[in-house]
Specification:
alpha+beta, Replication Fork Single-Stranded DNA Binding Protein, two-stranded antiparallel ribbon, 8 helices, 15% strand
């Protein structure tokens, strides 16, 4: 039977998703970015199982290193290697240390943006209205959401509203969040700026409460990338220099720590050899203060690592202190 274009695209997307997740699709991730244009998905966010996290989300920072070729192998399109930014752990990032001075030179700003960290935010909750007809229905209905800065800013702005009396994650007085997917004017790019909170409070259903009792909440920090050690940091520096210089990705040197996203490596190809990078572009000016944030955001749908669940919290977090903390942080 002949396949339609939609069928072919769906199969290719499934293959890429499996590749990005090491061959295993994680159905806990709800791919809201795949909902049809002009549709909406209704989500109900839940608290983090980690009571030390004052928010019901966790931020992650990823750097994308672009390459066009793999040593000893053929690739048909450019690809990226995603690496965690050390600033997630309040440590010095070797990539940003080199990139920050580039913003002092107009000719290097475009390249600097390419290598700057990309932010996304991890949430968890229930999918209450789902326009994805082929979405898997995992046994555990508590899903994880990878939220871009565009949607996150809408979420944060509403939390800063002084008329909000209770956290949207409250089990009895919470609010649903509707993801609205449209197109940016004159383009084919997705736009989520009309996404919004519901105005009506609702309580969790008996089925949702039963799921919380059975499965428990996720500890969101468990889904951050593993913190790089000395060997990984050395690999990051080598890959960064190779990417900037236009060198090939070397699987024998780096695949043990970081693999390309959406590209299947031929493990039998090539042989190990030392890597000697050429000099990276020199910085023309002193390092920009770390307080200056040149971050560039985009939609992030790569799967986080290390799934671990934690026990359900008996009671949802109270809103007063947390909302005050969010608002105070905004003023700083």
């Amino acid at each position: 039977m002949a396949l339609s274009l939609a069928d072919i695209r769906a199969r290719l997307q499934a293959q890429q998703t499996r590749s990005e997740s090491g061959g295993k699709m994680d159905s806990a991730i709800y791919p809201h970015w795949n909902i049809p244009m002009g549709t909406t998905a209704k989500l109900r966010f839940l608290p983090d199982a980690d009571t030390n996290n004052p928010y019901f989300w966790i931020e992650r920072e990823i750097i994308k290193l672009p390459f066009t070729s793999i040593r000893g192998q053929q690739v048909q399109r450019p690809f990226e290697v995603h690496i965690p930014c050390m600033e997630m752990w309040k440590a010095t990032c070797p990539v940003l240390t080199e990139v920050r001075p580039w913003y002092k030179d107009e000719s290097l700003k475009e390249t600097a943006n390419k290598y700057w960290k990309k932010r996304s935010y991890l949430f968890q909750g229930f999918v209450r209205e789902n326009p994805l007809p082929d979405d898997s229905n995992p046994e555990n209905p508590i899903r994880r959401f990878i939220i871009s800065s565009q949607i996150y800013n809408i979420i944060k702005s509403s939390l800063l509203d002084p008329e909000l009396e209770e956290l949207p994650t409250h089990y009895e007085r919470g609010l649903d969040f509707t993801v609205v997917k449209t197109t940016k004017s004159g383009t084919d790019y997705a736009d989520y700026n009309t996404s919004k909170w519901s105005r009506k409070e609702t309580s969790l259903t008996s089925a949702e409460l039963a799921a919380l009792e059975q499965y428990g909440l996720f500890n969101m920090a468990d889904f951050l990338p593993k913190r790089p050690g000395p060997a990984e940091l050395k690999t990051i520096e080598e890959m960064f220099h190779a990417s900037v210089n236009g060198d090939e990705y070397d699987p024998d040197r780096w695949a043990g720590h970081f693999k390309p996203t959406g590209v299947q490596l031929d493990e039998s190809a090539g042989s190990a050899r030392p890597y000697t990078p050429a000099a990276a572009p020199s910085a023309p000016a002193p390092v920009v203060s770390a307080a200056v944030d040149h971050h560039v955001d985009d939609e992030e749908s790569a799967e986080p690592t290390a799934p671990v669940q934690a026990a359900v919290k008996a009671n949802p977090q109270r809103a007063d202190d947390i909302l005050a903390m969010i608002r105070n942080r905004q003023k700083q």
